Amino acid sequence: MTKININGKVHTVDVDPNTPLLWVIREQLGLTGTKFGCGIAQCGACTVLMNGEAVRTCVIPVSAITNQKIETIESLEKDGQLSKVQNAWVQNEVPQCGYCQSGMIMATTALLRKKPKPTDADIDEAITNICRCGTFQEVRAAIHSVAKS
Amino acid sequence: MNKILSTPTRREFMGGTAAIGSGLALGIPMLYTTKNAVAAEVSPEIGVWVVIRPDETIVVRIVRSEMGQGTLTGLAQLVAEELECDWSKVTTEYPTPGESLSRKRIWGSYSTGGSRGIRESQEYVRQGGAAARMMLIQAAANAWGVGIDQCTVSKGIITNTATGNKVSFGQIADAAAKLPVPLPAQIKLKDPKDWKLIGKRIARLDTRGKVNGKQIYGIDLKFNDMLVANIKECPVFGGKVKSFDPTQALAIKGVKRVIQVGDTAVAVVAETFWLAKSALEKVNIVWDEGPNAQVSSESIAAILQEGLTAKDAFVGNKAGDMSTALASAAQKTESVYFYPFLNHAPMEPMNATARWTPERCDAWVPTQDGEASLAAVIAAAGIPADRCDVHKINLGGGFGRRGAFQDYTTQAVLIAKQMPGTHIKLIWTREEDMTQGRYHPVMACKLTGTFDANKNLTGIHMRLSGQSILASVRPAVLEQQKGRDPLVFQGVADAGEHAFGYTFPNLLVDHAMRNTHIPPGFWRGVNANQNAVFFECFVDELAETSGMDPVAFRRKYMENYPRNLAVLNAVAESIGWNTKPASGVFRGVAQMKAFGSFVAAACELSVKGNKVKIHRIVAATDPGYAVNPAQIERQVSGSFVYGLSALFQQECTVKSGRIVQTNFDNFGSMRIAQMPKVETIIIEGGGTEWGGIGEPTICVAAPAVLNAIAKATGKRYRTVPLKNHGLTMV
Fold first, then answer.
1. From A1-5, A56-60, A114-118, B708-712, the region with the lowest mean pLDDT
2. In the 8-state DSSP scheme, what is residue B184?
3. DSSP per residue over B372-414, as a string?
4. For B221-291+344-433, CATH number?
5. Portion of chain A with pLDDT greater than 70, in percent
6. Mean local confidence (pLDDT), B63-80
7. pLDDT class for B13, splitting at 50, 70, 90?
8. So what's the ipTM on this one?
9. For helices B122-144 and B169-177, what crossing angle results, to 10°?
10. CATH 3.30.365.10 residue spans of chain B
11. H/E/C letters for each residue in B601-668?
12. For position B17, what pLDDT does the model report?
């Protein structure tokens, strides 16, 4: 039995301790907003926040995150109100297929908490997620629009 | 938002079970016909494209697939334009392919590839919107006892101009649904100058669920009784399962079954994906690797090399007499280019969910072609078509992998068939996705330009040598064409949606078909990709031999192609072609007609050591009509991500008969840091042919950059990706 704190709630899950956090989030907790893309921490589709830091959950064993505070994409919308980052994504019409966007938004959320007004270089360094549709131009515009608001 | 119609209706089929195709652009006949069509049991349907609910919600039927390209919103705009409804009330739904078949394919093709979502359905969906409006007005006129000329309509409200009485679409929908549907001949579509929704930057209908994690993709599906499968196919295409030992896998708690799938694969079914994947790694599979186990990239290259000078080849385009031009040339320029296998690598790995019972089979598929998925389900299920259906789920990217190729759907059904009554969700690993692709065809090309003594170009011979997608996917089409694959000539064809945009005194474009055991597929942009690299780079080489500027040289031969010329001129002007670039900055251009649209790109870049920095890209596209400029801009800038990721970082190589690249660590893809600024110019050339958007621009991305790199470095790179030459994109 492993205890994990996700989106402010403590859950107890009965899985092999080596199971990646990604699959616990998706399969044990049913939170499917966090996506599987590569399984080797390359693409960032599985990004969540761990104590405020963006991490790639496909390579983190669930046993390693006991007592860590995890936030997934599902935690950002509160009472039907999108977060500032999510709103910027809507205003800038960022998503195409949308599959990578949970990860993009979580990585951006972590960046903006640390650097509310990031430079292009900050964005280049912090946002290393893959998007095969190619939404990068809109992602950058959306991040800057949050910084300006 | 997109409710799935769930009521299967009765239908019967005549004809075979194997051949619902994705249609391609070739008008492949559909073998299925239906009889005893039964109307759908759904709330008021006004015509076939529009359902109006009592709360005034306008439901527009969409049968093409939404995979990010925005076609869902664009198609809804087309219907709503003619319907004259309130756009804020518009929502969408996907009728199932089974529903469509039961109604004689009343919604037309489901195929969503070849950039045809909008361009090949625009007329009939606009007619569908207009038909619904005519029925609603007629119903109102009947209710008021007046002629339709006394009724006006705006934003879903019909007004009696004599009395001022008003009725809403929702109020009159039931009466309208009972009226006969006007025939296309009775429908007059709006003049484009009167469009109010088409051509506007209307917000996509499907954004919110993509920012809050709520949109359900195929991989996210849940059913109470569901089990999850992971699969491994023989890594050598053409090989089979010889034997496998399930003992260790079955010992893992939560693992339900280890089963062979067809002749070629083994799957583990378990309570979760992670269990299934972990258990599959413990199944010791012995493969019969078959006849292709010795094939390598080198052996394939040798076959292609032979084709470059082979005597026999299929002709794709011809003018004058190239053999005379070759014989009488005072000077020749000759170059050999190469374009590799590429994987589509959509972000969402292949997956499908199926439930089989002896009576019925349903599948939930992220598919670019619901009808192709249904054909795969029917064939794999062994159940009559009227008791099979496919429920379409939005895609986490498609790029051509999820249309004509339904291997993943077939697998899901074959697994489900071994576990009757249980929903089986099959999910591939990224490694399986990378090594079991349907790859961009491999192609080599030898180009010969001939000149007279005054360095005037007298002719060009373009010899393609490599794979045919149709030979693998649609052999019947090849048979009709006496072995020739017309798609190979995309962008350099003699006519049509991929027509060549130049006139040369002598020209020969031909193809020595050299197929390999690596299955080819329709990779976003398809054959225009390599043809643009080959031809548009070689044009720069010819310009250099002639001592001419690359843009001026192109213009000289493009007089007969004003729309090609217009996009070229637009990017040249915008990038400032006639001005001197900043120190250390170099420019390149390329143009082509692909998927019915005229596209051109110009770029500015600098090269420091082995690092290429692209500063600016200008892309022009003329699709005839621009349904949603905001979405066109996104498709165009995204096309540079797809095209330049391939140019710099991507190739699939072959060793011991199998694909070497396994994941994004050895099949790289661009990140935001490498993203150049892309400016999009949209030209609406009008006319009767509409062009596509999702694919055309990709083909000009690579040659524009390659031409600029040649200027910057003095080196002409004729094989890609550029990582093989040590160049990286920064």
1. A1-5
2. G
3. HHHHHHHHHHTS-GGGEEEEE---S--TTTTSS--HHHHHHHH
4. 3.30.365.10
5. 100
6. 97
7. very low
8. 0.98
9. 100
10. 3-211, 221-291+344-433, 297-342+439-729
11. EEEEEEEECCEEEEEEEEEEEECCCCCCHHHHHHHHHHHHHHHHHHHHHCCECEECCEECCCCCCCCC
12. 27
Q: Count A/B contacts: CB-CB distance under 8 Å.
A: 179
DSSP type of residue B18: S
The structural architecture, per CATH, of the domain B297-342+439-729 is 2-Layer Sandwich (3.30)
Class of domain B3-211: alpha beta
> Using the beta-carbon criterion (under 8 Å), do A90 and B673 form an inter-chain contact?
no
**Could you read off the pLDDT of B386-442 as tens digits, one per residue?**
999 999 999 999 999 999 999 999 999 999 999 999 999 999 999 999 999 999 999
Output the pLDDT for position A1: 85
pLDDT beyond 80 at B22: no
Which residues share a beta bridge with A3? A12
Q: Nearest Cβ partner of B211 from A31, A38, A89?
A: A89
pLDDT mean over B587-598: 98
User: For residue B100, is pLDDT > 60?
Assistant: yes
Which chain A residue is nearest to residue B679, measuring alpha carbons? Answer: A137
Hey, is the C-beta of A57 within 8 angstroms of any chain B C-beta? no
> Which of B659, B604, B280, B214 lies closest to B436, judged by CA?
B659
Mapped onto helix, strand or coil, the DSSP state of residue B587 is strand
pTM: 0.94
**Average of per-residue pLDDT across A27-36:** 98
Dig out the tokens for A57 from the structure.
């959950």
With CA atoms as reference, report the closest residue to B521 among B407, B373, B656: B407
Three-state secondary structure readout of A35-98: CCCCCCCCCCCCEEEECCEEEEHHHCEHHHHCCCEEECHHHCCECCECCHHHHHHHHCCCCCCC
What the block records as the tokens of B298 is 């080198």
Residues of chain A positioned with their CB less than 8 A from the CB of B204: 93
Task: Classify each residue of B204-225 as buried b or exposed e, where b means 16 or more C-beta atoms within 10 Å of its C-beta.
Answer: bbbbbbbbbbebbbbbbbeeee
Task: Set out the domains of chain A in order of their start, with CATH numbers.
Answer: 2-74 (3.10.20.30), 84-148 (1.10.150.120)
* Residue closest to B219 by CA, chosen among A44, A26, A71: A26
CA distance to partner chain A, nearest, from residue B263 (Å): 27
Q: Are B615 and B708 in contact (CB under 8 A)?
A: no
- Helices then strands (H, E): number in chain B? 19, 31
Q: Which pLDDT does position A66 carry in this prediction?
A: 86
